[in-house]
Each structure stands twice: as C-alpha cells, then as structure tokens.
Design brief:
The structure is a single chain. By secondary structure, the chain is of the alpha+beta class. The chain has four helices and nine strands.
C-alpha cells in the first residue's frame, strides 16, 4: 500500500495542472488549439482549456502574433519523486512520466491584442 501511495507524487499526491483559464482581452475572437481540441474564445470572455502539452492562440487580425502557452516542469512532484521516491527506485518518476504529470500548464493566461 505504501508503494502505491508514494510511487508517483505528481500523479497521486500533488497532481498536475493541465487546465489553463484563457481570458480574451482583445476585440476579436481568438482560436485556442490544444491537445484536447480547437476552441473559439469571444472578446472579453474566458474559457478553461485542457492541454497536456502546449496551447496555441491565434487571432484573425494580421497585426496579432500567434502565441504559444508552454508547460513548465512540475517542481514539487519532481522533488518528491527524487527525495522520498528514491526508496522505490525509478518507479515514481516513471509513473509521473507515463501519466504526464512531470509538467504543468499555467493556471491563467491573459491574451491581449488590439
């Protein structure tokens, strides 16, 4: 039981944030492309987008650049995989890598282009 509870801190304990709330602070509809699909976000609205990798934001306006929201390492899970997880060998890091919990997406992103 102890091996199961401590085997992957990112997957079981801490978890990883794969949802990003995107707020469209522009005057035009934007398109958000992620691993879960393609979404349209109306001006002055927000939407929670699930992605395990990156999110690409794009506007129809030619003066607005395409933006990529990148994932960041899940430092807490990695630290706990190494320190107490070292008792179980490679199992904690392997489980977190397979469940994609070594990285996390930012909680919020504000898109602005006028």
């Amino acid at each position: 039981m102890c091996v199961c509870l401590l085997s992957a801190c990112g997957a079981i304990g801490i978890g990883s944030n794969h949802n990003t709330i995107i707020y469209n602070n522009s005057s035009d509809v934007i398109t958000a492309s992620s691993t879960s699909g393609v979404y349209k976000i109306k001006p002055e609205n927000s939407l929670a987008v699930y992605s395990t990798d990156e999110i690409t934001l794009q506007s129809k306006k030619s003066n607005c650049q395409q933006v990529k929201i990148l994932s960041k390492p899940n430092g807490d899970a990695i630290l706990l995989d190494i320190i107490p997880g070292a008792l179980f060998g490679i199992i904690p890091i392997l489980v977190d890598a397979v469940t994609n919990n070594l990285y996390k997406m930012p909680e919020y992103y504000n898109y602005t282009c006028d």
